[in-house]
Amino acid sequence: MSQPVLSLWINGKSQPSTSARTAEVFNPASGAVVRRAPLAGKQDVENAVAAARAAFPGWRDTTPLRRARILMRFRELMQAHRDELIHLTTEEHGKTREDAAGSLQRGIEVIEFAMGVPHLLKGEQAEDVGRGVDCHSLLQPVGVCAGITPFNFPVMVPLWMFPVAIACGNTFILKPSEKVPSASLRMAELLREAGLPDGVFNVIPGDKEAVDALLTHPDVRAISFVGSTPVAKYIYETAARHGKRVQALGGAKNHAVVMPDADLDFAADALMGAAYGSAGERCMAISTVVAVGAAGDALVEKLRDKAARLHVGPGDQTGIDMGPVITAAHRERIQKLIDSGVTEGAKLVLDGRGLKVPGGEKGFYLGPTLFDQVTTTMEIYKEEIFGPVLIVLRADNIDAAINLVNSNPYGNGTAIFTRSGAHARRFERDIEVGMVGINVPIPVPMAFFSFGGWKASLFGDLHVHGMEGVYFYTRSKVVTSRWPGGEERGSSNLSMPTLG
Ligand code: NAD
């Protein structure tokens, strides 16, 4: 217990948690505990909600242009503190510095999108919907919003949520993953430095206790969640039962369909990053390849050769392609799944178990692993592995491949590799997945589009950021107005009014 315990961030300042519970925060590259995260309790949630509720009227009444200017300053500070945020991400998550930098950039782009909020909040207007009657709509903030985020993107996933929420005039409570709390707390300090009023943004690292208190709190109006599917479903059901709007993004099993007409070298290169980048701990990672017809053998050979050459080691060193996974327990789970693949008869083409990283003996490393001849009944197909394990299934034709993808319960991301416009068009139209790449392995939408999956990858309807994010964090109001000039007087009518 000698490591420092982090604080909460409530009402514009660091505050110790009222709860005595804490969690270890590891550096996955060394296996050492670097600090401890407070596990916020009910009283902490009460305090954060009270601060956010008190700050709401003033923030709602701050004009969108002024809110945007604070976000502009926040964006500049995020740029100025890039190295520090990248360091915190790599230290607590383990991903490489390059990968941390890329995800920071994608997060900053959401701030840039939210900076356009004066334009984004413009409603609709129609003149003369009836004689002398006009109509316009308003987008107004919902109030206190909360975000609950996973371990795998310590900076980017929180940024999917709060810049849009606060730009729209809401106040926000972020409950980051207890495994990677530091970057969220640092962003809170930068927001204060940018001029954000106290209480508009609060951070309470914690676990289920804090989450449950947020889900049931009567003053919390909206919940955004990103994490695993069982928890997403629980969040959706519990928050909805308590009258809140919810967007709960869940887990994934993303397939890449590789057609025989594809450029196989290009596809294999793209699949390296998609499968093994961030040690496979991405909700948009391609974990499953569906090789169609003659593509199979040649593709597997290329994947094996390229994967075997990847450099695994500490994410803060140069020349490293892939860092460790998040915890020893997670590595254990992945290894067991690899064992099950072998037992169930899949062909283990590349085995990452037992990898030794010189100097990193206590780190949570696992080498790139590749399976061929996998079937849909095997555990390694059915489970979201969330590690550096790529599995290959075979399909006879595009119909069988689309059917296979559509039969999977998840629907987050997918990609097709092909030179045929007809195949690409067919795939785009018929695939039941929320984000689709055509010769693009990880089709994460830019900040001005919306991010979200289908089926077991999303509970709720509105996706995050882009216009759907704006709609999630606002309530619409429609105003119908008439300014009588005298001639309409004295005509009471008790039947359903029609204007046209
Ligand atoms: P997780 O579901 O374990 O945790 C996510 C958040 O929920 C954390 O803040 C955690 O503290 C909290 N939590 C965990 N268990 C809880 C419980 N029983 N009750 C209430 N709250 C609980 O997910 P993780 O391991 O941090 O992240 C990995 C998962 O997130 C993967 O399944 C991945 O696919 C998914 N993910 C999805 C997306 C997406 O956009 N769909 C993006 C990133 C990650």
UniProtKB/TrEMBL annotation:
Specify the Aldehyde dehydrogenase domain's residue ranges. Answer: 18-479
Against CDD domains, the record matches this protein to: ALDH_F6_MMSDH
Q: What's the EC number here? A: 1.2.1.27
Uppermost EC category: oxidoreductase
Mind listing the UniProt keywords for this protein, alphabetically?
Answer: NAD, Oxidoreductase
Which Gene Ontology terms cover its molecular function? Answer: methylmalonate-semialdehyde dehydrogenase (acylating, NAD) activity
One GO term of the biological process aspect: thymine catabolic process
Q: Which domain of life is it from?
A: Bacteria
The cross-references to Gene3D superfamilies, in alphabetical order and at most eight, read: Aldehyde Dehydrogenase, Chain A, domain 1 (3.40.605.10), Aldehyde Dehydrogenase, Chain A, domain 2 (3.40.309.10)
Q: Which Pfam families match?
A: Aldedh
Name the UniProt record assigns to this protein: methylmalonate-semialdehyde dehydrogenase (CoA acylating)
Provenance organism: Sulfuricaulis limicola
Taxonomic lineage from the root = Bacteria, Pseudomonadati, Pseudomonadota, Gammaproteobacteria, Acidiferrobacterales
